[in-house]
Task: structure prediction
Amino acid sequence: MSRDGRSRTRTYAAGALTLLAFTTACGGNGGGGSAAPAATTAAPAAPQSAGTAPAAAATTPGTAPAEGDAAAWAKWNLKPLAPAPAPPADKPIKLERTGTVPVFSDVKTNDKVVFITIDDGAEKDPKFVEMLTDLKVPISMFLTKDIVKNDYGYFKPLQALGNHIQNHTVTHPVMSKLPPEKQKAEICDDQSALTQQYGTAPLLFRPPFGDGANTPTLNSSVQQCGPRAIVLWRESMQIHDMQYQTGDKKLKSGDIILAHFRGPKELKGATMTQMFGDLLARIQEQGFSVARLEDYIQAPAS
Ligand SMILES: [Zn+2]
Result:
């Protein structure tokens, strides 16, 4: 099956955000780790005539997307991803109201699903909002206050699609280098800003770079600010492919994938939507669907 016969639409956002010295990776090496070429030569567009949609039914019997959905995927030069199964009634991860917060990088499930998390919030590409509105792929957003505060509004239509907003500190520091009171300020101030802006208190926290996740100090700081879990990841999306933590370079059921809001400057010319489309293609070719992380997590009883 060809994976490169897709045409790519290049939309270099004029005046792409150049601010932010701290748009670099929050985990793994920042976009330079992929062996994939920086730019893919545009191939002739595959014919996307109306009426080709039912082809997807051959590989996903009973779960073929509606024809309108197939057209939406075709608009982005993608094949429809198989819909995720219904969320489990008995959540694999159950969070408690008090005490030590768990640290996890995947979810124990036999569902053939993975979870996409997108961090920081630097690139605010309107095309990505359009893409997610079309495709309805669930994501979780770990937002850093100082990176998003110039345009909190950008993330609201993404939230309105059912996507949750989670805590990723105020300034994106290396947490283990901070004393407890500064850790607490980083988490609590992001928590209050995001709660005020988006109307819901983040349930999850991700430390920048994954640093300090398993230290008692950070765990205590998180506990004092409200989030009830520390979320890491198994794979990290680069530009065209993922960086894997395991040698077999294969997704597993329940894996949490880290990606970033990034643009051409960080992606060697590729756009956010190209990066995300490639991520979906990598997930699809391994036979997985994308589910919503929060659908597999039980929040503490109130
Ligand atoms: Zn980050």
User: Anything to note?
Assistant: The two ends are 49 Å apart (CA to CA).
